[in-house]
Amino acid sequence: MSTWKTLMLQDSASPLMEQLMFFHDHTMMILIIITILISQMLISMIFNKFIHRYLLEGQLIEMIWTILPAITLILIALPSLRLLYIMDELNNPMISIKSIGHQWYWSYEYSDYKNLSFDSYMIPTSELKPFNFRLLEVDNQMIIPFKTHIRLIVTSADVIHSWTIPSLGIKIDGTPGRLNQANMYINRTGIFYGQCSEICGANHSFMPIMIESISPSFF
């Protein structure tokens, strides 16, 4: 989860989030190189006094500054498209879980088991224990096994919600009358927090998401 000292992305807990972080770092390095190069050119043009009265065209430099940005865009686009297809891929899931957004709480249905469904409400501040996190703790968290392919189906019962866990690299809209699908694969045990990332009404910030990842042998 995020803390006061978190300057970058949260620590990844899934292979998908690791790939997203690699792509972020790759793109940021390209942007830093472009920024330094353009800054140097601007400073050079501002402070030098070189002039050429009869210079009307420079075809070589025009070719260079047309081809280089095209190559740069390809270097960003190819990893981006690869990652986009990886995020859509679903590998023979072991468990399917349906998450339904309500105003303002989540409900979960484990469709592989009979009559296993529950609502997940935020714990009010007055009932929090000293070790709990304000606005993030819920009374019934979603429990899933780690190192297991899980299919998550998200929908909504009223308005558009967004089911989001930053450390897993998942952000998926819950739309009324529509089923959206995502895949989850968690590397390790732990508790992971998220919140609704869609402005869904007055209590939008009071419908947190809490996942507990446990060993498959205890699931």
In short:
The protein has 219 residues and is α+β, with helices and mostly antiparallel strands. The protein contains two helices and ten strands.
Question: What can you tell me about this protein's structure?
Answer:
The protein is α+β, with helices and mostly antiparallel strands and 219 residues long. It has two domains: 74 residues, Helix Hairpins; 120 residues, Cupredoxins -  blue copper proteins (Immunoglobulin-like), CATH 2.60.40. 29% of the residues lie in helices and 26% in strands. The protein is built from two helices and ten strands; from the N terminus they run H-H-E-E-E-E-E-E-E-E-E-E. The strands form three sheets. A five-stranded mixed β-sheet has the order 3-2-1-5-8, with no helix packed on it. A three-stranded mixed β-sheet has the order 4-10-9, with no helix packed on it. Strand 6 and strand 7 form a beta hairpin. The longest helix has 33 residues. The two termini are 23 Å apart. The mean pLDDT is 90.
Could you say what the CATH topology of the largest domain is called?
A: Immunoglobulin-like
Provide the CATH superfamily of the largest domain: Cupredoxins -  blue copper proteins
**How would a textbook summarize the main sheet?**
5 strands, mixed
> C-alpha Rg, in Å?
24 Å
Query: How many E-type strands?
Result: 10
Family: Belongs to the cytochrome c oxidase subunit 2 family.
Keywords: Copper, Electron transport, Magnesium, Membrane, Metal-binding, Mitochondrion, Mitochondrion inner membrane, Respiratory chain, Translocase, Transmembrane, Transmembrane helix, Transport
Organism: Otiorhynchus dieckmanni
Subcellular location: Mitochondrion inner membrane
